[in-house]
Amino acid sequence: MTPDTVPPGLPVPPPLRNDCFSLPAGVDWTPVDEALALLRERLHPVCAFERAPATAALGRVLAEDVIARRAHPPRSNSAVDGYGFAGPVPEGAHVLPLVEGRAAAGGDFAGAVPAGHAVRILTGAAVPEGVDSVVLEEDVSLQGGQIAFRGPLKAGANVRPAGEDVAAGAVALSAGRQITPSDLALLAAIGVGEVTLRKRLRVGVISTGDELVEAGTDAGVGKIPDANRPMLLAVLERLGHDPVDLGLLGDDRALLREALDEGAARVDAIITSGGASAGDEDHVSALLNEAGAMQQWRVAIKPGRPLALGLWQGVPVFGLPGNPVAAMVCTLVFARPALALLAGMGWVEPQGFDLPAGFGKRKKPGRREFQRARVRDGRVEPFASEGSGRISGLSWAEGLMELGDGERHVRPGDPVRFIPWGGFGL
Ligand code: AMP
Ligand code: MG
């Protein structure tokens, strides 16, 4: 029975729900996009500026726009090995006498090439005065100090004009950019040897749970190795932040309080995993609540339990679910853009693409789903199990498949969104 069919005067029955999203009346689950919009609105860069050599800038964030100190290319130069002259030349056969000498990359040709003459020129050589076009050496026959070739050839043929790539004084890279290997080439080419960067965002990682032992140590009966901390520290490293290991804690409120105090003094943001729900042993949310600065975000996402987001002594704390798959998904979907904002990168969106599904599935409405997936033969394959404790599936996967908030009936061949790990900045 739906509420609008209830006769007047009778109590409205609670809506029927048969999955884990069944909630007391009046409690809403925040859609992923709303949760993200809130983070985007409330966070801003917290990292100070520093100057650094461009060669040390890989993966770092530009604090200011980079202005080209010189044009690229600095001078008009030949794109090929051939012969240079003043163009254009019309259709038909042409014979031009060669001048003495040649223009080669790095060695200037002294003097000008008179009209009606040509000069030997090599790739990368600045075009001498009197030259604006180059004919490819393969298209030329050379005899007795003259070249013969067939036109037409446009003025400017095979010449890269000065500044065609980047003009001197132009903004070559914008503030917020995370420097890539290609950017290092660009910075070199435009004569920039030093850049203004944001200091790296220091992000502390804490695991919580009485059942956890340090990875690599003997886990007794009833204990499991802490899988989240190595994963999250590595994710932070890949994202370009400065990961700080704040350790593994049992479900002990006093110890956690101490760790948060110490962490807040050392880092710009803290990620915890475990204990973020509202149960007896969920000390992260309890403590943040106590500090009066916590929001429990019940985000309509699978996998993911509520996130505990709060400020601890002014430092943002992202309390992630303990389940490793949920911790990874929530890190990539929520913590990554939030940390990017804090780090001065601006807001970042996951970059995915639509590919045909290699499977069929019915999805319920009301929450967004991220499933471990990979692409084979151009089709998206999900991991065999949606079980969110299956760490091996994270390792098997090459990214996540995103199914939108609404109801969906995916048939084999239908387009589905696939976001490779690289699309999340990993
Ligand atoms: P919690 O969010 O603390 O209720 O934990 C949810 C599930 O994730 C439990 O089965 C925990 O044992 C597991 N878990 C929590 N933290 C970790 C961790 N760091 N490594 C591996 N599993 C974890
Ligand atoms: Mg726990």
How would you characterize the overall build of this protein?
With 426 residues, this protein is an alpha+beta fold. The chain folds into 4 domains: 3-48 and 201-343, Molybdenum Cofactor Biosythetic Enzyme, Chain A; 50-67 and 171-198, Molybdopterin biosynthesis moea protein, domain 2, CATH 3.90.105.10; 77-160, Molybdopterin biosynthesis moea protein, domain 3 (Molybdopterin biosynthesis moeA protein, domain 3, Beta Complex), CATH 2.170.190; 353-424, MoeA, C-terminal, domain IV (Beta-clip, Beta Barrel), CATH 2.40.340.10. It is built from 7 helices and 28 strands. Strand 20 (307-312) and strand 21 (315-320) form a beta hairpin. Magnesium ion binds at residues 209, 274-275, 281, 322. It comes from Pontibaca methylaminivorans.
Strand order of the largest sheet: 7-4-6-5-9-8
- Overall, the morphology is elongated
Kindly identify the CATH topology of the largest domain.
Molybdenum Cofactor Biosythetic Enzyme, Chain A
- The averaged pLDDT comes out at 90
The CATH architecture of the largest domain is: 3-Layer(aba) Sandwich
Q: What class would the helix/strand composition place it in? A: alpha+beta
Helix content: 10-25%
Terminal CA distance reads 47 Å
Beta-strand percentage range: 25-35%
Q: How many independent structural domains?
A: 4
For this structure, the quaternary state is: single chain
Major sheet characteristics: 6 strands, mixed
Number of strands: 28
CATH superfamily of the largest domain: MoaB/Mog-like domain
